[in-house]
Amino acid sequence: MKKSPIRISDLCRIKYLRELSISTNGKKIAYTIEWLDKKENKYFQNLYVIDSQNKIRHFIRGNKNVHNPKWSPDGKFISFIVTDKEKQNLWLIPTDGGEALQVTKLEGFFGNYYWTPDSNRIICEFTKKVIDKKQFPEKDKPPLYYYITKAWYKLDNAGMLPKEKPHIWKIDIKTGRMSQLTSSINGDTDPSISKDGRKIAFVSNREKNYEDKFLYVDLFIIDINGKKERLIKTPAGPKGNPVFSPDAKYIAYIGREGPENYQYMQSYIWLVPLKGGKAINLTKKFNLDIGDYIIDDCGNYAYNTIRFSQDGRYIFFQATSNGYTSLFCVEIKSHKIEKIIGEKDRIYAYDYDGKNTFALAIGNSVDPGNVYKWSKGELSKLTDINKDYLNSRLISKPEEFIFNGYRGRKIQGWILKPNGFNSRKKFPLIVQIHGGPHAAYGYSFFHEFQVLAGNGFLVFYSNPHGSVGYGEKFAKALDFKWGIPDSIDIMNAIKFLKKKYPVDYKNMAVIGGSYGGFMTNWLIGHTDIFKAAVTMRSVVNMISFPADDFGFIFPKEFSRTLWEKGGLEWFWNMSPLKYAPRIKTPLLIIHSEQDLRCLISQAEELFTALKFLKKDVEIVRFPGESHELSRHGTPRRREKRLEFILKFLNKHLKK
After folding, report:
1. What whole-number percentage of the chain has pLDDT above 70?
2. How far is Cα 92 from Cα 54, in angstroms, rounded to an integer?
3. Please, which pLDDT band fits residue 302 given cuts at 50, 70 and 90?
4. Options 2.120.10.30, 2.60.120.10, 3.40.630.30, 3.40.1380.10; which CATH number does 113-389 get?
5. Of 193, 208, 461, 570, which one has the fewest beta carbons inside 10 Å?
């Protein structure tokens, strides 16, 4: 069969493995697969189960939205969340066959949840939907007004935050009755339940001046009926993902110290005794952040989680290192850390049966992801979700290399060669810069990059200073100096690429989104080596940027304000907009109108300035989309975004 390059329209052909859950006997794995439907212009997600004989059964079919499946401890049911328009409810399906049953009917939105050991109840994070009829006099119509008194009142991809906060609830499986167990003013999240079914752990910020003490998160426990609430003493700071030890004597959680430090700080796994005593940092000597920080356009969103071994001796967790996410364990007694599995791929979700078997969602640079099982030291691939599609396409496999960056430090980078690559011919180069900045590119499938390679471009991407996976010092290199160390990294990379690959130095473009968009704007304001640039959802003006959803923490993140002496000048010097008169590179601006992380006004300021200065600039605005357009935007707009990028590059770069 003749293979063809990856196309923009392939977004709607790829199937994406999302969440997974392993049965308590370790013999079956439930998982969800998502796809994009261009005709309906929506996403749909179905439920599957694979057994120990690798037989796959399609449990929930059709245009449904099924999320977060979990096995009941007795193995009789699989629970899941169904999203229907703006409503979410909990459903069950019998594992031996039968129709799915709706359990809850209360309007609202679910966070994570867990079954009680007796399989009779579920403990969940839930935000009840409350409608103020004075504010919303007409059903399904916009409100008359928003009355705002809090600094944190909006959130990207969610809109205006509701007055009602998330709390811990209990669901009776037989009756569907939901009981609210907590009611703190700022909300309660991340519930987990002890193995004996008697205690619930969760985290909560109970500060009255919430926005001013945003990172003061505490750990609490209550009994199964929401009584006997008790604060568990832990170091002040952000924390989450609490989980009980098998004997219910300890709680492990992910967190850090320093609640007044809003710059990048590494998170760790902590262990605290419930009967008094200090919390212990188990991963203090582990110079990597806990969790999966690899970014691509596959849109993975599974919960980062930690799990105890059955005997309570070990805690399992994910961590990102050198462009890949692996599964690790830490021995509680010795604090010794060992990598279990993961090398040059991305373990973006996992579950554990509590004994010997892990279910894993693993993707890599040439495959979006499949279900794997790891048991007693042996890894087995159980699915081949995109086999037919991948076999029909020419997929570029990245080449990794190391180059010297800022202050001579080693920087990891990759290059995708175009289809029909010939070392005797020169190719235009696309420089891709990731957002965050505390995130990382790596060994994961990136549809956009493959599309560019399939259209004749060399595609370079890297993890410059500020990226995660190379230690805390490396990630903190951008503190108070956005655009300085990473500019040197990227410019050094281009010099390196010129020597090693057939780069057409006169035909290069730079592309980035979010912080990567900031860097794109910054670079073209300081160099004219690029023939084209595409900036997306970008930061332009550091003076007006704090109007975003987390702007209220901005003064703490940068340890200064606009109105103190020298503050205005300091922020203006770090604003790409200041350097607009220097820009000579033709620029395409792409921005979503409902982006609350980097407001549309950022794009408007840059576009207006460059038009005033008679520069070569174009803008594409996407109505109704958020900061997540490239990963979770509506299918047609995601395709159109890529079409605009490709058209612009083909216009300005010669092949």
Report:
1. 100
2. 23
3. low
4. 2.120.10.30
5. 208
